[in-house]
Amino acid sequence: MREGRDARALGEAPDQLGALAEGSLVPAFAHAEPGTRWTPTASGVRAAEDGGTWRLTGVKEPVLNGARADVLVVSAVVGGATRLFLVRGDAPALTRTGYRTHDGGRAAKVEFAGTPAEPLGETGGDRTAEIARAQAEARIGYAHEAIGAMDTALRITAEYLTTRKQFGVTLNKFQALTFRAADMYVSLELARSTAPWATLVQDAGGDVATAAERARLQTSRASRHIGKEAIQLHGGIGVTAEYTIGHYTSRLTAIDHVLGDGDWALARLAAGVDGYETVDPVGAPYA
Q1: Strand partners, 81
Q2: Does residue 101 contact residue 107 with C-beta atoms inside 8 Å?
């Protein structure tokens, strides 16, 4: 028996489902909370039933596109478990403060003060596992976006090196600069191979969490390397607000922090390293 509606029923009618698909009805996932770091559980927002109506209390921040969203899917604590609730953008006792992020996007601080909400999912169910998987799949998706941004940043930088002249010759004539651009290419290709592999693991129903962490680690290292080098190889123009290369680096930085940065992914992978099987070198004698 189900209580409320499941995630397939964000729209009450087929026309609303169509609105979700075409983008005229905007949803947002309100999960991150001040003081937390990329966990799949809720802690600061709590839900309680009051006279047959569920109400939420607490703060979610940052909520990407939270000020614009027509409907919010909110994680909240109920009896020690993390559950999901549906909150409409025009619900009473709901305050949304939107602001611009450094990469040009939008986020919001969302405050609930006894806000009415509708539960999603089974009665008494804990949604931590589903949230963790959704976060992992989102990390893989962001890895592909990061690859696109890094590829563009590298192409812009390579073009700059072949057109900008110093001491009467183009910058690509300086071997040290060419080597740095080549290192950027190596970083990009390492990330480019990791993200599709993670997608294959996801499609095959494998260990999505570990695959996502590996993809996040590789793209994090690559994006930091490529972003910094792209700006430095451009010189002074690279740090101006009018030039595109800084905007790509800013977006790469935002991607790196939205669901756990490279250091976080490395710590997660290192924590489970003793769980991998030991592989003996080929032909090595057994003790």
Answers
A1: 78
A2: yes
Is residue 15 predicted with pLDDT exceeding 80?
A: no
Burial of 152: CB neighbours in 10 Å, binned 0-12, 13-18, 19+: middle
pLDDT digits (tens, 9 = 90+) for 93-123: 999 999 999 999 999 999 999 999 999 877 6
Q: Is the dihedral of CA 98, 100, 106, 107 positive or negative?
A: negative
In angstroms, rounded to a whole number, what is the distance separating the alpha carbons of residues 36 and 186? 34
At residue 94, φ and ψ (nearest 5 deg) are: -120, 125
How far, in Å, are 86, 203, 245, 247 from residue 106 at the CA level?
21, 30, 20, 15
Is 141 within 8 Å of 259 (Cβ atoms)? Answer: no
**Is the torsion defined by CA of 137, 143, 146, 147 positive or negative?**
negative
At 24-74, the pLDDT tens digits run 889 999 999 999 989 999 999 999 998 889 999 999 999 999 999 999 999
In this structure, which long-range contacts are made by residues 211-215, counting pairs with CB atoms below 8 Å and at least 24 apart in sequence? 211/136, 211/140, 212/135, 212/136, 212/137, 212/139, 212/140, 212/143, 213/136, 213/139, 213/260, 213/265, 213/268, 213/269, 214/265, 214/269, 215/139, 215/140, 215/143, 215/191
Omega of the bond prior to 14 within 30 degrees of 0, cis?
Answer: no
Largest CA distance in the chain: 79
Q: List pLDDT tens digits, range 149-204.
A: 999 999 999 999 999 878 888 888 898 999 999 999 999 999 999 999 999 999 99
Point out which residues pair with 58 in neighbouring strands.
112
pTM of the model: 0.86
Distance in angstroms (rounded) separating the CA atoms of residues 277 and 41: 30
Nearest CA-CA partner of 7 in 117, 121, 89, 126: 121
